[in-house]
Amino acid sequence: MGCNILICDDSAMARNQLARSLPTDIGAQVSFATNGKEALTALEHGNIEILFLDLTMPVMDGYDTLEAIQRKGLSCQVIVVSGDIQPQAQKRVSQLGAKGFVQKPASAQTLATILGTLGVARAPSRPPHQEGQQARNLAQQFVEKTDYIDAYREITNVAIGRAADLLARLLGVFVRMPLPKVNLMEVSELQMALGYSSRHQACSAICQGFIGAGIAGEALLIFHDDGYRDLARQMGYEETTGDDTRIEVLMDVANILIGACLKGLETQLDLTFSQSHPRVLGLHLNVDELLRINPRSRWKKTLAIEVTLSTEGMDIECDLLLLYSEQSVAFLNERIAYLVE
């Protein structure tokens, strides 16, 4: 008899990728949930044996879901599949009862190995042509039905996970990593669309351009000045005053975050970006002033992807924006479609 598997992830792209990567010889009956609340309902009313659980989700995230599974005494083996690969994230989910942790995007070999360690029985495999047809059907369903905004959010989430992991290791803290916000808008609307808690808060910013395979964009890293002293001290700077030191600190962090994020995108999309030298966009300015300095007048529209990273126990906070030209969207869509072929 087959294994009952529940895949819980807010991203349709991630759910389809994981389902397509499951071994075909375990006779799995696969169902889906888009957040932890839906997953708990399925666990309470169904015979779910294995739950593949994302961490960063709306409504109820993976941590709260694991806590609820323990509290309710639900019988299920949980494997966390996440782009948030910080050591503390892996430690936390293990303490909450997860049987394994898999980095996104999960490979077929990794899933087969971890399912084997959980004692999932293998059955005679189906003929190869049937397996190939099932994969093609799932791919076609994704291309036809998936909102590409969801896909942009998912590939960025995985890429940001790499950046957050490096920042967490550098600072020795846990980095909160919410879901990216995605908007396709007129460039003139960018200032109004960004979700900052205080539009008049003093900030400093680093900007870096990138281009490759028909995709052109800019990465903009905005640091909130209130957290600068904590940031510098965690990086070992004894002297935190003066703009020269500030620029050095911000450049170091920008190289880590932007570099890791772009590398994550390169790996997923199978391309290589050429990058310009990072430059200081401005110091001690509010967000509106920073964006006016870098107007991108050559673009009419932009695909803007924003994520806010913050640390537990400190005031360190920064906003990473990936701004793509309007012409880049078609090339991004082609690459995303290629991911599920």
TrEMBL record:
Gene3D superfamilies to which the protein is assigned, alphabetical: 3.40.50.2300, CheC-like
An individual GO BP term: chemotaxis
UniProt protein name: Response regulator
Domain Response regulatory: start-end pairs: 4-119
Lineage: Bacteria, Pseudomonadati, Pseudomonadota, Gammaproteobacteria, Oceanospirillales
Signal sequence annotation: none
Keyword field: Chemotaxis, Phosphoprotein
SMART domains linked: REC
Organism name: Aestuariirhabdus litorea
Chain positions found as 4-aspartylphosphate: 54
InterPro entries documented for this protein: Bact_response_regulator, CheC-like_sf, CheY-like_superfamily, Sig_transdc_resp-reg_receiver
The keyword Phosphoprotein belongs to this UniProt entry's keyword annotation: yes
Pfam family of the protein (one): Response_reg
PROSITE patterns in alphabetical order: RESPONSE_REGULATORY (PS50110)
Source organism, top-level taxon: Bacteria
PANTHER family tied to this protein: PROTEIN-GLUTAMATE METHYLESTERASE_PROTEIN-GLUTAMINE GLUTAMINASE 1, STRESS RESPONSE REGULATOR PROTEIN 1
